[in-house]
Amino acid sequence: MSTRWHPFSNKNTSKYYAMRKSFIFTFAVILLLTLGSCGKGTKKPMTTGEILDSVTKIHMEMSQQDSAEVYALVNEYLDKLREDKIDEAVGMIYFLNPMNYQIETLPDKAVRRSKLMLTRFKGVKYDLERIIYDREVDNIAKYTVTLFEKETGDPRPNTISFMLKPIRREGKWYLTYCDDTTGNGTNLPN
Hints:
By secondary structure, the protein is α+β, with helices and mostly antiparallel strands. The chain is built from five helices and six strands, in the order ααααββαββββ.
């Protein structure tokens, strides 16, 4: 007979189970400590909107008057596009300066780019799809432009959607573009 220890030999069975229990207990403790320490290492960086909210402690209370103001502002913008007054429509767009969080007029380069884009995507119909309110600096107004009338059976897409970002600063609403070029991205889903 072999002199090697075997876990199922009669005289060593209790030692085997005792070692097994201590090994499982030690492994469980190490696993819990490892899992418990994982979530506290690095935090996700805050977005511009989160920084603004935490610094200024903004508590936005939307009223029916705010909704009416934004709706009228967006419709005025769309009316100017419908009437082919692209210069006036672009004149209604501002941007939030990320350095000082102040509303400013669009720079000349952005104005030229906006006019070019609106001229290229000139439509026959402009429809406001929806307005989503979240915070003073993170709201969305989505509108759809019908580029041409489509005949039955025509498989070509004939619409394109754009988003504006209404921002309220010091009690007044402004329209901005919802893009990364002007520093006005959004946390809201489309």
